[in-house]
Input
Amino acid sequence: MNVVIFGPYALWAPHFETDLEIAETRIAAGADITWFGCDGELESCEPNRTHRRDQCLKCIGRRKAGLKLLSSSVTSARHEEHLTAEDRDRVAALPRSFEDLDALRALKLDTFDLGMASLSSMFEMLRDVSLDVREHQRWIGQIVRSAARVFLGMRNYLRAARPDCVYVFNGRMSAMRGVLRACQEVGVDCHIHERGRDTAHYLVTTNEMSHEIDGVERRIEAAWARERFSREDKVAVAERWYEGRTRGHIGSWFSFTDAQAEGRLPSTWDAERRNVGVYTSSEYEHAAIDDAWKNPLFEVAADGLQELIERCGREAPDIHFNLRLHPSPVARESSTVKMLMALDAANVTVIPPDSEVSTYALMLACEKIVVTASSVGIEAAFWGKPVILAGASEWGRLGSAYTPQTFTELVDLVCDPALAPLDREGALKFGYYMATLGLSYEYFQPEGVMHGTFKGKHIRPRFLHRMQARIARLMGS
Output
């Protein structure tokens, strides 16, 4: 077996350690490994947006130190080595400026959705889906050119070498998606790894991003259909997962509800009125994947929710909206949060991200729940609440939430005082899937969400690379 690992992001733990885990596992099975790293060729990347030289040196040093821990040496390669003169000319001819987000979104390079991939990286780094493309022209150009070179270089390599498979982290961001699209065009299986159900597990999908809705649905149904466990056992596993969420047991990521006060409701709470809970999400992760994630109701979540509140204020004045903004620290600076924080209407209480109001106490106290994508929606469905999905989500087509396709239908559902909860079967399937997601690490030992050891060792650049990085930082490069 000839296995390729595209692993340029050695700064990102535990994803780099997952690359190493996969390499060691495949080596143990007799495979030869070719490792594509980066020696600074990417003009901008998620771990090092501004291409700081000291961070590049730290990344290179960490990669070399990690590869030394493998039980067999790997063949080191770089995508730049496989670019032709024609490829370089094509990259140089790519647009240097864009009128707006739609113009960038439409950019393609052969079979590569280059603009969408670049947007995904930008959203990831900014943690925001609203940006001025003219303000960020130089940065956009760096991302676009870097991803284009990855796609063209890896496509040439795959055509010539014909490896058995390729592994890459994430798949939705610019460089990583370039590898995925090159594999799909050439016909080489591309395995994409991501976080699993907790820090001790990692997920691997094949030839698709882990957040593609169709793929998630297939995996949910496949997990539920497995005959290894009885239905009763699966329901029990799902129930434990939902119960754990209410206690802040997130598993693979940080809990954003730890600072909330158990049972706390808004100071404006009035149990005599019709209370509707509205929960926002971190849009940046899903805003540039594919058309399945496109909101059928409104383009900008903040604008859509504001219009919903205004319409319902006229048509159902007895409704009071409790708008719970996503509690993630990075979400507090997003354009969506800033716009919604400015809402000033008698029929809405805006709950800031850092509020002590309990996400779950509010959910259980409200008449119904409205979400744009948040997993709070499927959790509310499990707990027997009518749930309205005003957007798209990985769980949206499982049958446990109302999915209006027009804005008028959304308003009607929200205003309906007799709206009943839907069957929670889909919620049970989702909970079981999330509770059993991923493969167990064998060589990586997690120490929290962002740290751990590989084969018992913390991976640090060796002395020379640390000194080079320190000198570069002192010199401001």
In short: The two ends are 41 Å apart (CA to CA). The CA atoms of residues 127 and 284 lie 6 Å apart. The chain has a mean pLDDT of 94. The domain at 2-220+439-474 is CATH 3.40.50 (Rossmann fold).
